[in-house]
Amino acid sequence: MAAVEVNAVEARGIVNRFGTQLVHDQLDLTVQVGEVFGIVGGSGSGKSVLLRTVLGLHRPNAGEVRMFGTELTHLDDRELRALKAGYGVTFQAGALFSSLTVLQNVQLPMLEHLTLSPHALDELAHLKLRLVGLPADAAQKYPAQLSGGMIKRAALARALALDPTLLFLDEPTAGLDPISAAAIDELLLRLRAELGLTIVMITHDLDTIFRNCFRVGVIVDRKLVSDTLDKIVDHPHPWIQSYFHGDRARRFGVHHGT
Amino acid sequence: MGQVVRPEPKNAARHVTMQARGDELVLTLGDLWRASTLGVLEPELAALEFATFRRLHIDARQIVPDLAGAWVLRELERRARAAGLEVSYELSRPATLALIDATLADTVDTPSSSPVEPDATSAIRGIGRGVFTMLDHWHRGLAFLGEISRRFGRGIFDRRTWHPISVTRHVHDTGIKAIPIVALIAFLISVIIAYMGAQQLRKFGADIFVVDLVTVGVLREMGVLLTAIIVAGRSGSAFAAEIGAMNLNEEIDALRATGVQPVEVLVLPRCLGLVIALPLLTVIADAVGILGGALLCHVLLDMPLVQYFQRVDESIGDWTFWVGIIKAPVFALLIAIAGTYRGMQVRGSSRELGRLTTVAVVQAIFLVILADALFAVLFMEIDI
Predict the structure, then answer these.
(1) Predicted confidence (pLDDT) per residue in B240-268, tens digit
(2) What percentage of chain B exceeds 70 in pLDDT?
């Protein structure tokens, strides 16, 4: 990517508190333009809350979030809407609109944000579906008729509807068989390379992390520890050690550092 | 990359600059070729005329199109080729176009979604299909009722079939919590009946018969009917929505997989709960209704309360109260079955949930009124 000074996402001093429970305490997150950034953390460590904070869906108790340099914690509704047209997001369970067909799901953000001729609307939506590898007959199906892998793909197609430069993915491969998961990983890498996307993904899947991510952030002790993939595996924190060096990690041939 | 985030300038520079060079048309592309500018781009390109040219030369060096931008450019290429022009690029064709080519390479055809042409017989066929669907609905409804009866009948002496805790909860939710609204409506309705009656009967000096009107009207019909309609709106919809959401969430499948019959744990307790709650609510509605009549007679007709209640006592026959109350469990069963049955039918989407909840309430109210009419005929025949 060109040498752009501004970061895709920059969060500083995020504090999130629910009742007496402190989820994030002075958490920092930086995602550079053009990279694939993985967010890892134990169950209940606040990965999804962090994502919602960055997306502007949840206002943090303290701290600021910048997306391409725009501070978004004090934006008004109109500015926030313009910002939301600039990124794509997929949710853990797909969150496809169950009363719309797959095609209509992809077209909905286009109708909301773009001015398009009906021909362009149809063609572009079909193009996105083809791009994520959905068969042509899937377009007219309803989400309830799709398999898990197809839902993930359809959600990805909807996230790509507005040609965003920044993509947030919440567990893009969770619940898929290893072959489908690998296909999604490959697809993401291809999209990143050819469309110059910046991708932020929450994942538990070690395969996905090792295949895709340039840098990884781990949420431990209510903070984010982030580094490049080959350095983070040697981080001394016990949770990170057991995550990357546990039984499940062995098969990737990660060696003990220090 | 950051420009997508900021709002695009309204009066952007031209996306296409045209230049004719003999029989060659040279297009220099500039500005933003992005999804967000497609609304301006599309008409601008559609206005281009190729008719007099043989070749099209595109200079795309200044643009970095995203997928939407590249798609528009590709459409332009296609149109030019279709018009018999040769297309060439200054230096190179943007890479994004190649991605689209590759993506669409193995596309056969986007399936045409042209609706089926209506013909002369389609209306008749539509009616026929409607009739069969309706028959099917009645059949399934009866089968559902049959399953409930079978499950209940088989375990009637088994304490577990009665699910006392669950039934208690439903009596609380559908009965006790409904007392305020039922009482309020019963009060208002009896006031209306008394007021209307008083206006008419006063002309004949027959004021005292207002009491008969209120007593008989509320006890026989209005008390139970209005209570049933309120409960249909409150609890019929709640049953359908609750069970429907469980269905969407695969909770019903989870129950079946655990070897638990959903009819037994979800439908039966709701039916039983409502069959207990509705007669009790009706008693409250009856009482409040008669009190409402008393208030109006006292205030509007200056009737002493003692006289009012004496008259109430005289006008109540052996069966007046029971004719109303007997209907309550039947109405309760109709409401509970309509609600739970529709809830069990929810499949797939949140729209279905909304639709079937509506159907449940409308059907429950319809069935209640239909049953009330049948009861009226029955009671007339047996003369009570």
Answers:
(1) 999 999 998 888 888 888 878 888 889 99
(2) 93
- All structural domains of chain B, each given as residue ranges with its CATH number in brackets, are 16-109 (3.30.750.24), 147-381 (no CATH)
How distant is the alpha carbon of residue A55 from its chain centre? 10
Beta strand spans in chain A (E) = 9-18, 21-31, 36-41, 62-67, 70-71, 87-90, 166-170, 198-202, 215-220, 223-228
pLDDT (tens digit per residue) in B260-302: 888 888 999 999 999 999 999 999 999 999 999 999 999 988 8
Tens-digit pLDDT profile for residues A79-130:
877 777 778 888 887 788 888 889 999 988 888 888 888 888 888 888 889 8
Q: Do B2 and A85 touch (CB under 8 A)?
A: no
Q: What interface predicted TM-score (ipTM) does this complex get?
A: 0.75
Minimal-distance CA residue of chain A relative to B109:
A136
B358 and chain A in contact, CB less than 8 A: no
Chain B residues close to A4, C-beta within 8 Å: 1-2
Q: Which residue has the tokens 């109540």?
A: B316
Q: Residue B118, class by beta-carbon neighbours within 10 Å (0-12 exposed, 13-18 middle, 19+ buried)?
A: exposed
Task: Answer yes or no: do B103 and A130 touch at CB < 8 A.
Answer: yes
Element (H, E) at B279: helix B268-301
